[in-house]
Write a structure and sequence with these properties.
By secondary structure, this protein is an alpha+beta fold. It has one domain. The protein is 28% helix and 40% strand. It is built from 2 helices and 4 strands; from the N terminus they run H-E-E-E-E-H. A 4-stranded antiparallel sheet has the order 1-2-3-4, covered by helices on one side. The mean pLDDT is 88.
């Protein structure tokens, strides 16, 4: 993920682990000026990751960090994946 995505990102933040999995928040160059969008990538295996993208509503723009909120969404996804996997 780092190798392919980081060079194309205008914003790149290593996030705290999400349920033990490494995560990064990033904004590609096309969305860098909007300040209302963030993508979070979570590595769940050496060769597998998933992404969660969040765009703030007009009411939340400027008052919330989209990467923090996208990380919360990614955490919910990991919880669901663990429940479906039975672990």
């Amino acid at each position: 993920m780092y190798k392919n995505t980081k060079p194309q990102a205008a914003v790149w933040r290593v996030l705290p682990l999400i349920q033990g999995f490494p995560a990064v928040g990033y904004v590609d160059k096309a969305g860098a000026n909007s300040g209302d969008i963030c993508q979070v990538g979570v590595g769940v295996a050496d060769d597998l990751s998933f992404g969660a993208t969040l765009q703030l509503s007009l009411a939340r723009k400027g008052s919330a960090d989209p990467c923090d909120l996208a990380a919360r969404v990614a955490d919910m996804v990991v919880t669901n994946l663990r429940q479906k996997a039975g672990s």
